[in-house]
Design a protein that fits this description.
Radius of gyration: 16 Å
Signal peptide: 1-33
Keywords: Signal
Largest sheet: 6 strands, antiparallel
Protein name: Peptidoglycan binding-like domain-containing protein
Length: 216
């Protein structure tokens, strides 16, 4: 689906997302999701050092009342290191102003460490009831690690919102999907599908064409 089509679909889902996610944010739930498997992007970890980039999206399919929750990962180009993180929103609030506690975190390590820590919710700010259980990855011939790091600082400080922005009156979002998309877009990830405001994370994840699909 092209960008304009996705934005139309996103508007159609906005009311549902605002009502349901407004109550629970991007909160994980205790039920572990059934995994899916397709052909992976091979040698994702081994390809470090070749000059290519790479990106991953981590998914809690049952998060936010089954609307889904997502986090990100990207390779520090030319190394075996990855930067990964998420906005967890452990307070479950519909709105948290800039500078408030939104459960934002990020870390750096090898590809194997990234998968291990995401599968255990090792950095979840509080007691996690449901770790990430699915991830999708892609290689990328373009990358901008500096811009992605700068965007992490932005999403970690801009607060959380699903619904009406009290400052502008606009129906919009600054949630886990917005954070993941904005970081990976700043990285210049190839094959990254647009994510309209208030879009449902589980719906967006299915639009990632040419990305691997594996369970943690």
């Amino acid at each position: 689906m092209n960008s304009s089509g996705m934005r139309s679909a996103g508007l159609g889902l906005a009311v549902v997302a605002a009502l349901v996610m407004g109550a629970v944010g991007c909160r994980p739930t205790p039920t572990k999701a059934a995994g899916t498997t397709t052909a992976p992007v091979r040698n994702m970890a081994a390809a470090a050092g070749t000059g290519t980039g790479g990106a991953c999206v981590f998914v809690k399919p049952d998060g936010a009342q089954k609307l889904g929750h997502v986090g990100w990962g990207f390779r520090v180009t030319g190394t075996d290191q990855w930067v990964y993180g998420a906005v967890e929103n452990p307070t479950d609030k519909l709105y948290t102003p800039p500078g408030g506690d939104i459960g934002a975190w990020h870390a750096q390590g090898t590809y194997a460490r990234m998968l291990s820590e995401m599968s255990r919710d090792a950095h979840y700010p509080g007691r996690s009831t449901h770790p990430y259980s699915r991830y999708r990855c892609t290689s990328s011939s373009t990358s901008d690690v500096g811009a992605a790091r700068a965007m992490i600082r932005t999403v970690e400080s801009r607060g959380f919102l699903v619904g009406v922005d009290p400052r502008t009156g606009a129906l919009t979002s600054r949630d886990c999907l917005d954070a993941t998309y904005d970081v990976l877009r700043a990285y210049r990830t190839r094959h990254l599908t647009p994510a309209p405001k208030l879009y449902v994370p589980n719906v967006w994840v299915e639009t990632l064409v040419l990305w691997s699909d594996r369970t943690l």
